From TrEMBL:
<feature type="compositionally biased region" description="Polar residues">
    <location>
        <begin position="452"/>
        <end position="481"/>
    </location>
</feature>
<dbReference type="InterPro" id="IPR001633">
    <property type="entry name" value="EAL_dom"/>
</dbReference>
<dbReference type="Pfam" id="PF00563">
    <property type="entry name" value="EAL"/>
</dbReference>
<keyword id="KW-1133">Transmembrane helix</keyword>
<dbReference type="InterPro" id="IPR050706">
    <property type="entry name" value="Cyclic-di-GMP_PDE-like"/>
</dbReference>
<feature type="transmembrane region" description="Helical">
    <location>
        <begin position="36"/>
        <end position="52"/>
    </location>
</feature>
<feature type="domain" description="EAL">
    <location>
        <begin position="196"/>
        <end position="449"/>
    </location>
</feature>
<keyword id="KW-0472">Membrane</keyword>
<feature type="transmembrane region" description="Helical">
    <location>
        <begin position="7"/>
        <end position="30"/>
    </location>
</feature>
<keyword id="KW-0812">Transmembrane</keyword>
<protein>
    <submittedName>
        <fullName>EAL domain-containing protein</fullName>
    </submittedName>
</protein>
<dbReference type="GO" id="GO:0071111">
    <property type="term" value="F:cyclic-guanylate-specific phosphodiesterase activity"/>
</dbReference>
<feature type="region of interest" description="Disordered">
    <location>
        <begin position="437"/>
        <end position="490"/>
    </location>
</feature>
<dbReference type="InterPro" id="IPR035919">
    <property type="entry name" value="EAL_sf"/>
</dbReference>
């Protein structure tokens, strides 16, 4: 349909051409034929000019519309891709949830069946005991009634079952009555024959007398096996210069409030060791374990923060390590203190990982740059159904958020081969090297261990074989000092 503006323009062009011819005929004295020719020529020129201008304007409008349509199509494509990604993620979660629920249902069904068998066995046992007791078993012949002896594997005690009968049964024979519990002087024993009270006293004396050592265990790159980091493992020496492993005293130290002092001493030694290591290699790093109670104690944490602030230049190489349970149980105070450390440039690591339900984005936002997972957990086929991601894809997923995966507790070459298929970049374990003592300036980290004793220490269990002839007063010529000691020990 012709637009009104087009009709108006056409009428105007005809009027202009006719007016031009009329002016030429009446004013210039040109003949009528010539005036008509000039008028038609002017009309043709106007028509051509209008057509060209309209074509250019339409082309500009069409170009703008095409550009808008292209942008809209691109936005639509992005939205469709995003919807597709979300749908795939939802389907994956649904499949994983269904698999997990199926495994849990099977486990519950198995437990119910086992419980049913135990209940039937218990009912038969109770019925037998009631029949025997109702028949009046003679007290002088307990050996002829072997079924009356308490079953140590039964889920319910025989005496408790007899007491629950509605009618009072005859008294049990003396041979069938339960013996009183044996009282012991030290109900809870620890390694080395110490109870908790003795271990706590030993721990206090060790802290007061500066007998807290650190052992270093390397973390290597895979498959090159080049040392990249060291983990500081805490050991405590008692009065007889015997080492106590961390797993033996950590729980007691946390319960008694001594863990903050231990963390301060270990942190100081880690900084000293790191400065010595960086003299020869700038790319080396040290992992320093920090307890959850230290992170939540305002007084202890303030001391640690002041010390770390003074050594802020070492932040890229000093990694603070926390347990997975610590990160999952962060409160407002712990979260604020963790953020204060992250603001000063310190990086974090997570160890004692018990499952692979990991949120890498949340951990990366909190400053986590390393996650240590036991090799047995990574290679466990059951983790495929219980975790949100296949273990072989965990390293790639963590890498997208700037987190490195470290496989720890590696004890065999077979595990290394399997972990390489999982694209694990770092490894730690007894296969590469056990934790070993460090003796700066010719002595142990605390200045009290004998040289031969430090050499005889093997593994991370804190056991040591003491040489009777080795004393802390050995001649200086028999000791290796400075960086030479570091190179010898590590």
């Amino acid at each position: 349909m012709i637009r009104i503006s087009t009709i108006f323009i056409a009428i105007c062009m005809v009027l202009v051409a006719a007016s031009l011819g009329l002016v030429l005929y009446s004013v210039a004295g040109i003949s009528g034929t010539e005036s008509a020719i000039v008028a038609l020529t002017a009309l043709t020129f106007l028509i051509l000019y209008n057509a060209v201008s309209m074509r250019l304007r339409d082309r500009t409008d069409v170009g703008g519309q095409i550009a808008d349509l292209s942008r809209g199509t691109a936005d639509l494509a992005r939205q469709v891709a995003e919807f597709g990604r979300r749908l795939a993620a939802i389907e994956g979660r649904i499949a994983s949830s269904n698999s997990t629920n199926s495994d849990r249902i099977q486990s519950v069904v198995g437990e119910i069946n086992e419980l049913g068998g135990l209940v039937r066995q218990l009912a038969a046992t109770v019925s037998t005991h009631e029949d025997l007791l109702a028949g009046g078993a003679p007290a002088s012949a307990p050996a002829e009634k072997p079924d009356l002896k308490p079953d140590l594997d039964a889920p319910i005690d025989l005496i408790a079952t007899a007491d629950e009968r509605p009618a009072a049964p005859p008294p049990l024979p003396v041979a069938l009555r339960p013996a009183p519990p044996v009282q012991t002087a030290n109900p809870v024993q620890t390694a080395g024959g110490r109870n908790q009270t003795q271990l706590l006293a030993t721990l206090r004396n060790a802290i007061d007398e500066n007998r807290v050592d650190i052992f270093l265990q390397p973390m290597v790159t895979l498959p090159q096996r080049k040392v990249r980091f060291y983990e500081a493992v805490t050991r405590v020496r008692d009065e007889r210069e015997q080492l106590i492993a961390a797993e033996e005293f950590i729980s007691i130290a946390e319960a008694s409030g001594l863990i903050g002092r231990i963390d301060n001493m270990v942190m100081l030694r880690c900084v000293q060791v790191l400065r010595r290591l960086m003299v020869r290699n700038k790319d080396v790093g040290v992992f320093c374990n920090v307890a959850a109670s230290t992170l939540g104690n305002s007084t202890t944490f303030a001391q640690c923060l002041d010390f770390l602030e003074a050594n802020r230049a070492l932040a890229p190489s000093l990694v603070l390590e926390f347990k997975q349970s610590t990160f999952r149980g962060l409160g407002p105070v712990e979260t604020e203190n963790l953020a204060a450390l992250a603001q000063r440039g310190f990086r974090f690591s997570i160890d004692h990982v018990t499952d692979l339900r990991i949120e890498p984005r949340e951990l990366a936002d909190r400053g986590v740059r390393f996650i240590k997972v036991p090799a047995s957990l990574l290679l466990d086929p059951k983790q495929t159904s219980t975790s949100d991601i296949h273990p072989s894809d965990l390293s790639d997923l963590l890498g997208r958020f700037g987190i490195d995966l470290i496989a720890e507790r590696i004890e065999g070459e077979r595990a290394v081969v399997d972990l390489l298929d999982y694209d694990v970049r770092f490894g730690q374990g007894f296969l590469f090297a056990p934790p070993r003592p460090l003796r700066p300036e010719g002595a142990s980290a605390t200045g009290g261990a004998a040289p031969n004793q430090a050499q005889d220490i093997q593994g991370s269990n804190g056991s040591a074989s003491t040489n009777p002839g080795a004393t802390s007063g050995a001649a200086p010529s028999q000791r290796i000092t400075g960086n030479a000691a570091l190179a010898r020990r590590i």
